[in-house]
Amino acid sequence: MDFKDALLSIEINNTAYDVNTTTQNLQTKYASQLVAWEDTAVGAYLLLVCILAFILNALVIYTCLRNWSALIMSDFYILNLACSDVLLPISAFPLPIFSSFFHRWMFGDIGCVIYGFLGFFFGVVSITTLTIMGFTRYISICHPSIDLSGQKFRRCTLILPYVYALVWSSLPLSGWGSYSLESYGTSCTIQWNENRAFITMMSLFCIFTPSVIIFFAYSLILLKCRTSHRNVREWQRRSRKMSRKEFFLIKITFAMCWGFLLSWMPYAVVSMWTAYGDVTMLPIRFTATAVLLAKSSTVVNPVIYFLMSKKFRPLLLRSLKLPDLGIQASSLKSWKVISELLPVRTSSGTGSTNTASESSFTGHKFLVKVKQVHMDVGSDVQL
Predict the structure, then answer these.
(1) Burial level of 160, CB count in 10 A (0-12/13-18/19+)?
(2) Which end of the chain has a smaller Cβ tally under 10 Å, C or N?
(3) Residue in 97, 275, 84, 263 with CA at minimum distance from that of residue 180
(4) What gap in Å lies between CA 256 and CA 303, rounded to an integer?
(5) How far apart are CA 274 and CA 278, in angstroms?
(6) Cβ proximity of 183 and 279 under 8 Å
(7) For residues 319 and 67, is the Cβ–Cβ distance under 8 A?
(8) CA-angle at 108, arms to 113 and 118, nearest 5°
(9) 180 three-class SS
């Protein structure tokens, strides 16, 4: 073997060594830090969340579209949330599901950036929408003289969450911040322990400020209701303006906001600890649990809406052409009241004046009562 052959052999060996080293580094970089059965459990959980989120949010969207003319302003925010919560599982969840079942991240750096972008984008869309819902509830209850029912305002508040989320989720793509693997290895997110300036600004405007607005909006609403209860005259005046639908919207929006915040709060704590604390003291399995809880937020909103809504379920059943036992029960109740209030006919001729007077009085009661029953039943079948 001459000198040239020896050099070629050395070069080939070095190239093979570099390829093997690169392959090993990639396998180490994308390897899961969990045990195999833990990854399987994570994949099964995410698959279940993905299926439930798709079915429940699709039902919300279908019902809203079938009853478009019956929607009010707050219902469009519900529809906005449902669209966000159904798009995230469809577009992003398959990546960590497959990766969990294969015990390693399967989609490389590009897939990691795509998944991190989608998760951040739809998360900001949801919390911004909930913030707008809380703010509009506060204005309508505490400052009813301000009119927020305009078409232009509604369109702006529906588009704003997507524009706002797009701006923030695009910043890491431009180089200010970045997306990388989670510490447990089968999911991706913002790189929390780099670029403190971006992390600080993002946390301030995408997590803390919306949470503060939501908290103070509902605190002021509850304070207003409590003050009104103490003053009977004020409460009577307010009760004419604040219908049962208003109370329902306050209750359900409050529950949805806090359901979302509680789902994301452990992950926010983990993220802040990663950004500003000692990462080595943060258990990997605690991080994985916080991430899984945050992903379940896509199921929280429709579940709360199905459980708490006395108005949405009848519309859903009617859209699916299923029997609505709730409305039937209300109708039977109303007919029972009607039959009890109907005047009884007598065959005797005596006391005709008293009978006519009593019938007239009973008829008036009947009309008032029927109107009340109609309002009660009608309010239960509107969204």
Answers:
(1) middle
(2) N
(3) 275
(4) 9
(5) 7
(6) yes
(7) yes
(8) 25
(9) strand
Look up residue 206 and give its amino acid.
Answer: C
Sign of the CA dihedral 345, 350, 356, 357? negative
315-to-67, 137, 146, 326 alpha-carbon distances in Å: 7, 23, 30, 11
Burial per residue of 292-302, b for 16 or more beta-carbon CB atoms within 10 angstroms, e otherwise: bebbbbbbbbb
Whole-angstrom distance, CA of residue 127 vs CA of residue 168? 13
Phi, psi torsion values for 188, nearest 5 degrees: -130, 155
| pTM over the 0.85 mark | no
Q: Which of 259, 258, 262, 282 lies closest to 270 in space, CA to CA? A: 282
Alpha-helical regions (H) of 31-72: 36-66
Q: E-strand spans in the chain?
A: 179-181, 188-190
Is the CB of residue 107 less than 8 Å from the CB of residue 130?
Answer: no
Mention every residue, 6+ apart, whose C-beta is less than 8 A from residue 89. Answer: 49, 50, 53, 54, 298
- Give the total residue count for the chain: 383
DSSP state of 186: S
pLDDT tens-digit map of 13-66: 555 444 454 444 445 678 888 899 999 999 999 999 999 999 999 988 888 888
d(CA 171, CA 210): 19
**C-alpha torsion 296→301→304→309, nearest 10:** -160
Residue 285 scores a pLDDT above 70: yes
Q: Which CATH superfamily is domain 8-319 in?
A: Rhodopsin 7-helix transmembrane proteins (1.20.1070.10)
